[in-house]
Amino acid sequence: MTQDHLNFIFIGISFAIYIGIAIKSRAGSTKEYYTAGGGVSPLANGMATAADWMSAATFISMAGVVAADGYAGSRYLMGWTGGFVLLTVLMVPYLRKFGKATVPDFVGDRYYSKTARFVAVLSAIFICMTYIMGQMNGVGVVFAQLFGISLTKGVLIGASIVFFYAGIGGMKGITYTQVAQYCVMAFAYTIPAIFIALALTGNVIPQLGLIGNYAPGDADPVPFLEKLNNINTAIGFQEYTASKMSTLNMFCITAVLMCGTAGLPHVIVRFFTVKNVSAVRTSACWTLAFIAVIYLTAPTIGAFSRVNLIEKLNGVSYQQAPDWLKKFEKTEQMAWVDKNGDGIINIYGPKAAFEGKESNSVFIPFENDKKPQYHAAEDTLEAEHGQRLLKNKVDTSNPNELWFGKDIMVMANPYMAGLPMWVIALLMAGCIAAALSTAAGLLLVLSTSISHDLMKKILKPDLSDKEEVRYARVASFLALAVAVYFGINPPSQFIAKTVAFAFGLAASSFFPTLLMGIFSKRMNREGAIAGMLCGILFTFGYIIYFQFKLFLYIEGAPDQLLLGITPEGIGFIGMLINFAVACLVSAFTPAPPQAVQEMVENIHIPSGSGEASHH
């Protein structure tokens, strides 16, 4: 049995389970469509929330960023982990007690304004669309690798599946589907890590292997991190454990990921699927435990894959290179250019550049597309040693000859380590589960924002339940069509960075508005609206300017960055702008109605303690 056959068997079984659950749990009412009827157990909801959280950015891209950036890649680990703690402590219990399942619903009622609700709807759409762009790109990467097809076809196949079980099952179907997906993801992520830890370090626990000794076969043991630093510095890279970015930029990105997490609509709505506030806290504890399984394993996978990549390919003749290199070349996730004509794969870091600025680019990108461009989709145009020919012009300013996509490292790792075929098949099933689970949750929140918060609450208050669900499904299809386009043409060449933009938008719009709405009785609608608009518009404009080429190909240069803060971290400045503008405008405009102030005070009082009173 071939690897492809085994992949299809594992994925086919998992898909049969997912689709069966989606059909059996089909939503029959708006309450089941939006919040699964509010009857999910804390344990099941914890698993489902963890699966929702284990997006393509986490499962596929985060370990790849750690593999490529080393210590600097920890910004994603710290930001997303800390953010979930903020969410469960500062936001979820109060929002649940307030009783509004969507962020625009809370904003509309707390700030007693349809305008505030409308701004929140637009913000939710921008955030979820940016987030789902990264997820659909991840879907495309996984399906392209699975079937050996182009990214475009991979995105289209994945989008069809996402629409089916998100549109049919609603939140009820997605919740129970994601319980199954988490189980697949947890095993798919940890089992390969255990195998590789045993092979490289002799330790069955990957985390202990990372801080243990590198001792493959009969080699003399050496501390693993020392080995990792040595092989990096020997070929012109910085030490793996050294930071590669400024402290300010690292702080801003980490803070954005934390605060953005606490303002993400698709995660907040998860805690409305359980019965009460007590169940919310229990569910949050389970979620953190389930997330820890993946997050504590990601650094080990990144480090192991870094060692395997360099050890297996550097200095090896292309004609004698492992078969998996050609497999990843075919799907445009790896590329080799023989710069010196010796037929040997040479991997070098930026410090080995011949002249000018430090760089290890293999080729010069076309416009802003940093991926390799081939002459033909078929393997018809081959160079002297059998490698595929690139259309890109070769970058001769440095000796590095190997390009690889960061998002492929998790999928490539078991191939590089020579793991059993069934382990690779299990990993592929996990990658697909990760890419599809969050995309489905985001699609549901997008459709809810349009059908419930925009159509029913603002434009057509007389909508029936059936009409509302119908609008939600139409909105899902339209949103998915836009997401497919940006999945094929993403704003960034690796998934985690695209997703970080969504966190920046959430941090600059929802986080201050929700926090002040929960803890400040004085914050009024004028302040909230002004703050949200200024925060998200500043952040969105900055991302567009530096990440996209605008009219006449105007594009921000790196030396124009504000204080050296990249688009990933600019949401932190947008968040500060939101806080400042909201407080300033609120100070010069009338206070909220007394009923709203009492409502804010009451959500801080434990159930059964009686109403708030003035003394």
List the helices and strands and how they pair.
Blueprint: H1 3-24, H2 30-35, H3 42-53, H4 56-69, H5 74-98, H6 103-110, H7 114-147, H8 151-201, H9 206-210, E1 213-214, E2 222-223, H10 224-233, H11 247-261, H12 265-268, H13 277-295, H14 298-313, H15 323-330, E3 334-336, E4 363-364, E5 393-394, E6 402-404, H16 409-417, H17 421-459, H18 465-488, H19 495-519, H20 525-547, H21 571-587, H22 594-602
Antiparallel strand pairs: 1-2, 3-6, 4-5
Tell me what the structure shows:
The chain has 22 helices and six strands. The strands form three sheets. The chain has a two-stranded antiparallel ribbon with strand order 1-2. Helix 3 (about 40-55) packs across helix 8 (about 150-200), helix 4 (about 55-70) packs across helix 17 and helix 7 (about 115-145) runs antiparallel to helix 17. Mean pLDDT is about 80; it is low at about 25-35 and about 610-615. A hairpin with a 7-residue loop joins strand 1 and strand 2 (about 220-225). About 65% of the residues lie in helices and about 0% in strands. It has helices spanning about 5-25, 30-35, 40-55, 55-70, 75-100, 105-110, 115-145, 150-200, 205-210, 225-235, 245-260, 265-270, 275-295, 300-315, 325-330, 410-415, 420-460, 465-490, 495-520, 525-545, 570-585, 595-600, and strands at about 215, 220-225, 335, 365, 395, 400-405.
